[in-house]
Amino acid sequence: MARIAGVDIPNNKKVEIGLTHIYGVGRHLAMSILKETNISLEKRIGDLTETEISEIRLYIEANLKVEGDLRKDIALNVKRLMEINCYRGQRHKMHLPCRGQKTRSNARTRRGLAGKRGIKRK
Q1: Which of 15, 18, 72, 109 shows its CA 20 to 30 Å from the CA of 33?
Q2: Where is this region: Disordered (predicted)?
Q3: Domains of the chain from N-terminus onward
């Protein structure tokens, strides 16, 4: 298993898919990382040499914000929104969707199952 940015990546995955196990790296960003480091998209993680793994690791450390740093920044941004009491911050405080979605019939993932239970009929 290759370890990049503190994440163990399974050997049987293609490099493009394996890099998406890192928080903050999606398919498009993974492809651009491989293009910058001149690594083939067809290779699997287990087939990479130590030098190729270290190239990927160095590129990510130098150019991207991933894993813990990214999570911390996102948490600080949400906290700032709640402190300045803007609309999005209020929605975060109330555990409601803050990007304009309707909440009358959906939003179960944010609101929980409390509204769905209702009153039992006799």
Answers
A1: 72
A2: 99-122
A3: 2-64 (1.10.8.50), 70-111 (4.10.910.10)
